[in-house]
Design brief:
The complex is a heterodimer of chains A (155) and B (135). Chain A has 155 residues and is of the alpha+beta class. The C terminus of chain A is likely disordered. By secondary structure, chain B is of the alpha+beta class. Chain B contains two helices and five strands. Classes of the chains: A alpha+beta (155), B alpha+beta (135).
Chain lengths: 155, 135
């Protein structure tokens, strides 16, 4: 028995037994589980962030085309009213869309909300039979709030 | 001898417990990975569907020829145009996804859906000013 232990010690087996003792499996398991969990949670968070971005893009596109459709309807209505000789006032279209119309001779401008932060700004000029579009662009809503500075956030 | 046996029993017990915990953890992690993959695929499909519909909407709005520009198949009346997309969202590479553009006077309803299940991915309605028809 003693001889065997001596032989084992000489060949290094005794040293190996000490190295892979009870507990090393648990340590390895904790490490592997932590790595797996971290990567799986990261992939899920990343996928959800992607989805949120895609949903925002979808919402933006839908809102833009909803506003664009309203603008087209409004221009058609303006064209019809002008053709029939009716008077167009600032409050003529307040029920059909959230907008303002400023009458400057034959030029009309109105803004239609695209979501909560943007507006579709349209400027059109009546040229007799139809409208010539002078501006058709998305602009940011001017909320009138002053931008917050980093200092005010600290104090 | 008895000490050595109890140590190996303890080691074996720990190993079995570790394997069991590992299997449980793997099952949870695989379900998380699968969930992430599903969300990622849905996001990819929705993103491409929105891009496809947006492109078609702009073509319609400008009064350009949908059949030529989108390589679409049109019905005899020329009011319903159909475009097929493959899994890579390229036209002509398969029929995994389908987009229909249904013209109604000066309005078009653009629908993007799965060809097999007909499950809708995205729908967009676009109106163009009168007199911009491609005809």
């Amino acid at each position: 028995m003693l001889e065997r232990n001596e032989i084992a010690a000489k060949s290094g087996r005794a040293g190996k037994r000490q190295m892979y003792g009870v507990g090393i499996v648990s340590i390895l398991l904790i490490f592997v589980v932590l790595v797996f969990t971290t990567f799986s949670i990261l992939s899920l968070v990343s996928a959800r962030a992607d989805m949120r971005l895609t949903e925002k893009n979808k919402e933006m596109v839908t809102n833009y085309y909803t506003a664009s459709n309203k603008a087209v309807e409004l221009l058609e209505e303006l064209s019809y009213l002008r053709g029939s000789g009716a008077q167009i006032a600032d409050n003529t279209f307040t029920e059909t869309a959230a907008h303002t119309i400023s009458d400057d001779g034959d030029t009309y401008s109105f803004k239609i909300a695209v979501g909560s932060h943007l507006q579709l700004s349209v400027i059109a000029r009546y040229t007799g039979a139809q409208y010539e579009i002078l501006q058709y662009k998305v602009i940011a809503v001017n909320t009138g709030e002053e931008p917050q500075s980093g200092v005010s956030l600290l104090f | 001898m008895a000490k050595g046996r109890s140590a190996s029993t303890l080691f074996l017990t720990e190993l079995i417990c570790a394997v069991l915990v590992f299997v449980g953890c793997c099952a949870i992690c695989v379900s998380l990975f699968a969930g992430a993959d599903k969300i990622s695929r849905e996001s990819y499909e929705l993103n491409n569907a929105v891009f496809a519909a947006e492109g078609a909407a702009e073509i319609y709005y400008n009064g350009s020829d949908i059949e030529t520009l989108l390589s679409a198949e049109s019905d005899p009346a020329g009011k319903i145009h159909t475009v097929y997309y493959g899994s890579d969202w390229q036209t002509g590479s398969g029929t995994d996804y389908c987009m229909t553009i249904e013209e109604k006077e000066e309005k078009a309803v653009i629908k993007v859906f799965f060809t097999e299940t007909e499950r809708e991915i995205f729908t967009l309605t676009v109106q163009r000013p009168a007199g911009r028809s491609a005809d």
